[in-house]
Specification:
Blueprint lengths: L3 E9 L3 H10 L5 E8 L4 H5 L6 E10 H14 L8 E8 L1 E4 L2 E4 L10 E9 L3 H10 L6 E5 L9 E2 L2 E2 L4 E9 L3 H9 L10 E8 L1 E5 L8
Antiparallel strand pairs: 1-3, 1-4, 2-3, 2-8, 4-13, 5-6, 7-11, 7-12, 8-11, 9-10
Helix pairs in contact: 1-3, 4-5
């Protein structure tokens, strides 16, 4: 079994400390906070770049045996918030680097997950186009995080993709049955037609929990 789990919480802006404080009190290593935005469900507004709520994305790497305790602490810290305040999901991590050592765990047996996290990295300004295509294939909503590459345009490549500044990462959670259709809709986008213009990958989601004063829902 994998030894570590990556917890990812998406909550309104300026609420990251609430999540990280609860996680730290429950024994987490700490976390990283990213600023992102929610893409509006109104396609016209989204294409105009308007109506996108600013979000905090909190990532927490923890040992598997601490996961349930940390998840409960986060859920409890959001119990008095508005319905659909945010969401929390977990992904398996097979290995990590800590204080100069690579720590590995045994792989889990391959199993079908009810939900999949699709991550799309593409040039800045095109995340809304990718989300619109994903919605037509059955996806609900997504979160966009601003990013940058680590080299010059004529320098290093990753799977044939130039690693350059000014990127966006689009994160979408979908039902397993919709994964292939959503990936295909993204693959055929004109903004991804050129070599090096983007990359997408997906991972099975272990748990998905709604945060706020609604009953927790898990897949």
């Amino acid at each position: 079994m994998t030894k570590f789990v990556l917890l990812t919480a998406v909550v309104p802006h300026d609420k990251a400390d609430q999540i990280s404080s609860a996680a730290n009190a429950a024994g987490s290593f700490g976390g990283t906070v990213f600023m992102g935005r929610k893409i509006s469900s109104n396609e016209v507004i989204a294409r105009l770049g308007l109506g996108g709520e600013i979000l905090d994305l909190v990532t927490i790497l923890t040992e598997r045996e601490n996961k349930d305790k940390i998840v409960k602490a986060i859920v409890d810290s959001c119990a008095n918030e508005k319905p659909h305040f945010g969401h929390l999901c977990s992904l398996d991590v097979e290995s990590m680097v800590k204080t100069g050592n690579i720590i590995k765990g045994e792989k889990l047996m391959e199993e079908k997950k009810a939900l999949e996290l699709i991550a799309v990295i593409l040039n800045r300004g095109y995340a809304d186009d990718a989300m619109a295509a994903a919605r037509k294939a059955g996806a609900g909503g997504g979160t966009v995080v601003n990013a940058r590459g680590t080299a010059r345009e004529d320098d290093a490549k990753f799977f044939g993709m130039h690693i350059v500044p000014e990127k966006e990462m689009l994160l979408i959670v979908v039902e397993h049955e919709k994964k292939d259709a959503v990936l295909e809709s993204i693959r055929t986008l004109p903004c991804l037609a050129e070599p090096g213009s983007g990359i997408a990958f997906c991972s099975g989601v272990n748990d998905f929990t709604l945060l706020g004063n609604t009953p927790a829902a898990k897949a």
